[in-house]
Every structure is written in structure tokens, then in C-alpha cells.
Amino acid sequence: MKFMDLTDSDRALASKLAEEMGVLNNSIESGGGSLAGFLGEIAAQKIYGGEIQHTYQYDLVLPDKKTADVKTKRTSVAPRDYYECSVSNFNPNQKCDVYIFTRVSYDNKRCWVLGHYDKKKYIEEARFLKKGQTDGDNNFTVRADCYNMPILDLEKCPEEQPCHIL
After folding, report:
1. C-alpha distances in angstroms, 19 versus 40, 74, 90, 104?
2. pLDDT tens, position by position, 14-51
3. Which one of 17, 67, 125, 139 is CB 3.0 to 4.6 Å from 96, fit for a cystine?
4. How many domains in the chain?
5. Are 106 and 76 in contact, with CB atoms under 8 Å apart?
6. Which domain holds residue 121?
7. Three-class secondary structure of residue 70 per DSSP
């Protein structure tokens, strides 16, 4: 897990991108998480390298040409390794190679890049939860059908930057 402070230019770029995008279909927060999502993409690109691509299928083309979709949650606290990462059931058909997971603070000043996981393996190995079901690990009632996995089970990025997903 890597922590970084987000800059004013990071926030300005993310705000511009979120405004241009508008509200996506099936948005769990009716567009409220878009700014954080773009901040997560910016932070992931700084750690993993590659190019940000704004497509429905993926967010980054990594240096090794694999594609990554960045999944971001907002947080009020530094994440612990037993916290859960989630992929909404709206997303498993996206054509990406890996998921990269991030957390962005509610004040949009910090981001934790948590790690990554092969998309196909993630869907096979994560716990499936139905909308309205309470996750027994953290007592959170999920807002949409999703696949959950603890941060500690993610693949970690090597220390050198940018890193490559093997």
C-alpha cells in the first residue's frame, strides 16, 4: 500500500474531468464519487506508470500494455489491511486485465494506492454480496451487488516506480 498527498493540480484536473464526464449510468452515488474516482486514477498512474485512458472498459494502459480499471472508495481514515475492496456487479464484463484499488480521503487531499489483482482471478476469488446484504467482516450494508476482497489479499506493487504487473 502506498500513500501520497494529492496536489492542487491533481484536484483541479480531477474536478475538470468529473465535470466533463457528468453522471454515469448505474452510478452508486449519482455522480458523487466521480471526483474521488479521477483522483484515484491520477494517483494510480503516478505509482504504476502508463497512460490514463478514459474509456468504459479501463482507465489505464500500463507500461507493459496491460489495461487496468481503477476502483476507488472514499474514506475518512487511513485504510487498514483488513478493509475491503469492492467491484460492483455492473462492472465484471469490462474488458480490462487488472483492477487497481485506491482510497481517497473525503477532503480529497490524500490517496492510498492499495494494490492490484488480475480481473478474472478477482471475480473468481472474491466474495459475492447481494445489494442490501450486510458484510459480516465489517458490518457494512452493500448498496449494490458486488465482489469484495480484503486489501491484504491484493497483489502489492514493487517498491520501484513505475511498477509493472506481472
Report:
1. 16, 18, 22, 18
2. 989 888 865 554 544 444 578 999 999 999 999 999 99
3. 67
4. 1
5. yes
6. 2-75+94-125
7. strand
